[in-house]
Recover the amino acids of this structure.
């Protein structure tokens, strides 16, 4: 498989940054699309924090590189099988922007090649042999960084498996590289309905004329658009910002889906808020904006135990310990941050 022409991508050179930033990027590489870089208005703003290296990435040595245990849930290379009826297929290692809070930060820069044909064949054989799998989520990296021919190969191969009824694509391309969304791409994607696209807006400044046009083209092509936002300290941990983001998404035909508590990924601790702060933000959304704009606030539990949705009125708390119930009914302890207040 191949990537589409990526000349529009700017690789940030270490010499551009201070010595401390260069040391960060030597461990956790930096990549920022020209478009996304153009959204930065000043050093330290919400866009800057999401894409520019921070020395605190190197200071976090407590959290785990793979807290969701994706490696142990990978029966064949490039495929994650956590829930009974769905799998994640990692078709791409490349993104337009290397987000500093990435859940797969351990993989960033370890190789930019897309999934090889032999790996794809093994993954498809696994899916075909497991009839309980009805839902396949394309992820990576960013699947829409593949060229059109490679996307067609993946989608047509999945559609040929009778028990696969839903295909989802997780992508940040409409946010970080909206020019990738073309009429030709949308015509291709239309052939594989039902096709769901979950994108990833984190701040209202990411909703621009360009990202609106990209989402509009996908929506006009019949794609069901959802959004997964990560709760990020210093970026969007504010009820007013979150209200503007969620209502803005509805305005560009994107349904807010998940608000993720920050995963416990090594190198990202400075982005993490307490769960209490997240619950207060959800409280600030409910009743203040349309119910259509209120996402599910979820914690993806360490150990690969799955996502748990939490609301301000349904969390058991014992000190810094939350007691949560998984989709299997298991009661799990989750250690939260203790608010300074």
């Amino acid at each position: 498989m191949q990537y589409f022409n990526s000349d529009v991508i700017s690789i940030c050179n270490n010499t551009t940054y201070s010595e401390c930033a260069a040391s960060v990027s030597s461990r956790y590489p930096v990549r920022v699309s020209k478009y996304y870089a153009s959204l930065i208005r000043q050093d330290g703003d919400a866009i800057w924090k999401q894409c520019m290296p921070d020395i605190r990435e190197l200071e976090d040595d407590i959290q785990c590189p793979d807290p969701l245990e994706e490696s142990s849930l990978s029966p064949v290379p490039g495929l994650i099988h956590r829930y009974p009826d769905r799998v994640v297929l990692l078709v791409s290692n490349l993104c337009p922007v290397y987000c500093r809070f990435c859940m797969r930060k351990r993989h960033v820069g370890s190789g930019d090649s897309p999934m090889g044909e032999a790996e794809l064949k093994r993954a498809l054989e696994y899916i075909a042999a497991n009839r309980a799998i009805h839902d396949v989520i394309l992820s990576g990296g960013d699947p829409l960084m593949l060229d059109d021919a490679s996307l067609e190969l993946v989608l047509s191969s999945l559609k040929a498996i009778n028990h696969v009824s839903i295909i989802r694509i997780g992508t940040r391309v409409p946010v970080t590289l909206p020019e990738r969304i073309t009429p030709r791409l949308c015509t291709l994607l239309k052939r594989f309905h039902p096709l769901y696209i979950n994108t990833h807006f984190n701040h209202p400044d990411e909703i621009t004329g360009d990202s609106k046009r990209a989402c509009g083209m996908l929506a006009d092509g019949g794609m069901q658009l959802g959004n997964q936002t990560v709760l990020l300290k210093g970026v969007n941990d504010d009820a007013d910002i979150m209200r503007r983001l969620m209502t803005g998404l509805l305005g560009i035909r994107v349904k807010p889906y998940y608000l993720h508590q920050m995963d416990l990924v090594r190198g990202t601790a400075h982005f993490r808020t307490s769960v209490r702060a997240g619950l207060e933000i959800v409280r600030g959304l409910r009743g203040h904006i349309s119910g259509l704009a209120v996402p599910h606030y979820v914690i993806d539990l360490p150990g690969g135990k799955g996502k748990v949705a939490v609301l301000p009125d349904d969390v058991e708390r014992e000190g810094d310990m939350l007691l949560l119930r998984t989709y299997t009914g298991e009661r799990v302890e989750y250690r939260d941050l203790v608010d300074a207040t």
